[in-house]
Design brief:
mainly alpha, Helix Hairpins, rod-shaped
């Protein structure tokens, strides 16, 4: 609890001493009551009821109009005021009803504090990292192009179909599925199911966390999709020979141009 300042303690002690030095108001109570009785503005039955309440009696009091009024029974709860000479219930030393409990330092009523959130600004935290990643990818492609010879092929001969005839690498997965399933299944059904599954993944996995260990369902769906497509592309690129038949690249050679 906060300590009470010394000047407030001295002021409270002086007020108590002053109240003890004042004469008791009991002697002046009756003249004041007689004075009030002589005042025609206060009805007589109210004065009589006040006297009966101060005296703590339950006796009937005669009213000016000839009726009878019963004094209010207050018991130990009602305390007589200073005019009756009594001390209010719950009063402190010297009859004071006010006490100084503590002194509270001034401050704001509402202490508003910013709630920390797990978020950062797009610039520079995200865009700076993406820019560095783009530079790294560009440097990797540049170095790769130095060591890997990738010339343009000769003009296509319409009278001679190459064997095997392979699609670009990003379509080799689809071409590989055409060797296993009906064209309707390989070209429409399976790719459509995969795309719908990827579209519905954010709605099925509503976890707001961006940590991979907390997003097992979404991570599993994406991993299965990538691995399925990567395996098909690798098989179509390195394990398919003339007639698009299955071959072993370390036995019959590589039928794919990088």
């Amino acid at each position: 609890m906060t300590e009470i300042p010394e000047h407030l303690l001295k002021r409270a002690a002086a007020a108590r001493d002053k109240s003890k030095a004042e004469p008791e108001p009991a002697a002046a109570a009756e003249p004041a009551a007689e004075e009030a009785a002589g005042d025609s503005r206060i009805p007589a039955h109210l004065l009589q009821r006040s006297k009966a309440a101060k005296a703590g009696k339950d006796a009937p009091v005669e009213e000016s109009g000839g009726g009878v009024a019963v004094a209010e029974k207050v018991g130990a709860v009602v305390a007589a005021g200073p005019a009756g000479g009594g001390v209010p219930i719950g009063a402190g030393p010297g009859g004071h009803t006010q006490r100084l409990l503590t002194v509270v330092k001034s401050g704001t009523i509402q202490d508003v504090k910013a709630t920390p959130v797990d978020k950062v600004h797009t610039w520079p935290h995200l865009l700076a990292a993406e820019f560095v990643a783009a530079l790294a990818c560009t440097a990797l492609v540049f170095v790769f192009s130095i060591f890997v010879h990738a010339p343009l092929l000769e003009l296509a001969n319409t009278n001679q179909t190459p064997n095997p005839s392979k699609a670009p690498w990003y379509f080799l997965g689809l071409q590989e599925m055409l060797t296993m399933f009906h064209p309707m299944v390989a070209g429409v059904t399976l790719p459509g199911v995969g795309m719908i599954a990827l579209i519905l993944t954010p709605y099925l996995d509503r976890n707001p966390s961006n940590k991979p260990e907390d997003r097992k369902f979404a991570t599993s769906i994406q991993t299965v999709h990538l691995m399925f497509w990567a395996v098909l592309v690798i098989i179509g690129s390195f394990f398919r020979g003339p007639g698009f038949n299955f071959v072993l690249p370390w036995v019959e050679g590589l039928f794919f141009e990088l």
